[in-house]
Structures are given as C-alpha cells and as structure tokens.
Amino acid sequence: MSQAHIFLIDDIKPIQRGGGVVTTPLATHFSAPEAKFTTGISVYPVGKGAPLHVHNCDEQVTLLEGVGEVEIDGEITPLKQYDSTYIPGNRVHAFRNKGDVPMKILWIYASMKVTRTFEGSDEEVEHLSAKDMMAKD
C-alpha cells in the first residue's frame, strides 16, 4: 500500500527560478517517491513568464491568481483565475503574467521524471534542477 503524504506549505522551501519566479514543489520524486505525477505552485512577477519550452510528458496548469496568457504552438490565449490548460508532451508552450499583480499557477505533470527542453536548445534538463531556470538574474 502506498504511503499518503500531506504537504504543508509552510514546511516547504521555495525554489528561486530566476527573474523573480518562485516555485513551491509539492508532490515530487523527492517528497512522494511512489506518486505517479509531479505537482507544484509557481508565482510569476508582473511582466514575467516562462521561456518557450517542451516537456517529456503531459502537463495540466490552473491559474490560481492574477491574469496571464498561454502560448501553445504559436497560438496565444488569455487566461484568468481558474482557467486551466492541458498540454500534451512535446508541445511548445509558455505561460506569461499579463496582469498588474503576481500570477500564481498550479502545475501537474503526468510523470515523476519531468524534463524541460527550452526552445532553441537541444539540451534536455531535469525539471526544477539548477539548469531549469525561468530567467537569468
């Protein structure tokens, strides 16, 4: 029987991702090794967003706070609170804060071994590793 886990937000150390982007990992291969997915919350400052990239697995994102946009394969769609996306693996995409307050998203990946490849790069990097930065400071 798999072990249940409770992720208390005050007990989790946030990860600085560059450009003021902060990520709080929830279910990951470190915190819940038997889980079949990876989850977390990222906060993007005003005017910031992720570079275009692909993942090795499917991703679902829900915008929790703020307003933003998602670009998927060159098509941009505005997002407001609680709007959600499903993006199959290996599809070029990015989320951007288009509002005047921080944008907070909840992300869920359909794998415990998540990678990211930034557009224009052939290097596949481990999700949330030191090379998986949203911007250079």
Automatic annotation (TrEMBL):
Source domain of life: Bacteria
InterPro entries: Cupin_2, GPI/OXD, RmlC-like_jellyroll, RmlC_Cupin_sf
Cupin type-2 domain boundaries: 42-109
UniProt cross-references to Pfam families, sorted A to Z: Cupin_2
Keyword Endoplasmic reticulum on entry: no
Keywords noted in UniProt: Metal-binding
GO molecular function: metal ion binding
Coiled-coil spans in chain: none
SUPFAM superfamilies, alphabetized: RmlC-like cupins (SSF51182)
Official protein name in the record: Cupin domain protein
Organism (species): Pigmentiphaga humi
